[in-house]
Every structure is written in structure tokens, then in C-alpha cells.
Amino acid sequence: MRIQTIPSASVDVLIVEDDAPTRQILRLLLEQRGYRCAEAGDGRQALDLARAEPPCCVLLDLVMPGLDGFTVARRLRADLRTFGTHIHCLTGQQDPSVRKQAQQAGCERFLTKPVDPTDLMEVVGRETKREEQPVVTVVSRLTKEQAEELLSSLENHGCTGLAVSIEEDGLAVRFICPPRLQLIQNADGTLHFLRQHP
Question: Integer distance in angstroms from the first to the last C-alpha of the chain?
Fold first, then answer.
């Protein structure tokens, strides 16, 4: 059994939008408020940037040439480096089926184009500039029984973003712990939660 934590984000916001003027306006609005931003003009560039320097939050256009926003969101959710990143849509789409598809791909909130600056700051402000960024933890090399027991314990402790994947050496469980809660492995291999005090 192995426990791994994924480092907190160093980029506040990754803006993924194929329209350059829209990207520049969003970046200007965010940087004026002190957010550290990165820009991507297409889905492939977005994935490369996010994997190299995982952002805290992604503002993701759904309709782009090449890799669309749905594909980008699914790939960000599947990657251990970006699993805990918050993904929000930039869209002009009002169709409920499109929104449902985006949510299934891993998107959390929707910003309608043209983006209202107040809405933008409200959404981004929830995930960035916090004293405590969410940390993704991965426990791997688990048997089926160990994974089931761990999932039950994670739910009881209020952990979110639970996901299980099959790897060559067993099952892996990914999750985000609440602030100040950490999973520790004892010398005998058993796991327990440690709550840190402020």
C-alpha cells in the first residue's frame, strides 16, 4: 500500500479559450485582482499547461477546434496531477443537455458568455487565494477489500472527489480531504486519520 499527495496548485487560474480577445479580457480582470493566470488557446495546449503546472481553477470554453472542452475536462479529471482542479465552463450554450454533458465530464459551474465580471470573481474567488488549498491524496496498491473499507472510511470523514481506478499492482483510490485532515499509514500498514489543529 502506498500513499501519495499531489502538490497544491501554483497557478490560480488557467483560462482556456480559443478567442484571443476574450482570453485577454478575462486575464486582465483576474490579474487586476491579484490572481496568477495562464492562458491556452486550444485543448491540447490546456492539457500540457495544466499537467506542467496544475492550476487551482480552470475556466474552460466548451466549443474549441481540436479537443473540445468536454474532452479536456474528462482528461483533467482522469489525471492524478489535475484531479483536484476546479473546472468551470465558459459557454454561450443554454441547452440543458449540453450543461448535463459538461457536468458529467467534470465541470462544476457555468459562466455564460459574455462573462459578467461580478460572476467571474464570485466563482474564481471560491477556489483561489485560500489559505488552505485542497490536496489530492492517492492510496494505491490496494486489494478490493482494502479499497472498499477505505472508501467507507473516507465517506464517514467527509472526504470528496472519491474515485477508484485499476492499476497494474492493484486498485488506487483518489480523494480530497477536508481542511486539516490527513490520512496516515501506521507502521503495521493500517491507515488512520489525523486531524491537525490550527
Answer: 29
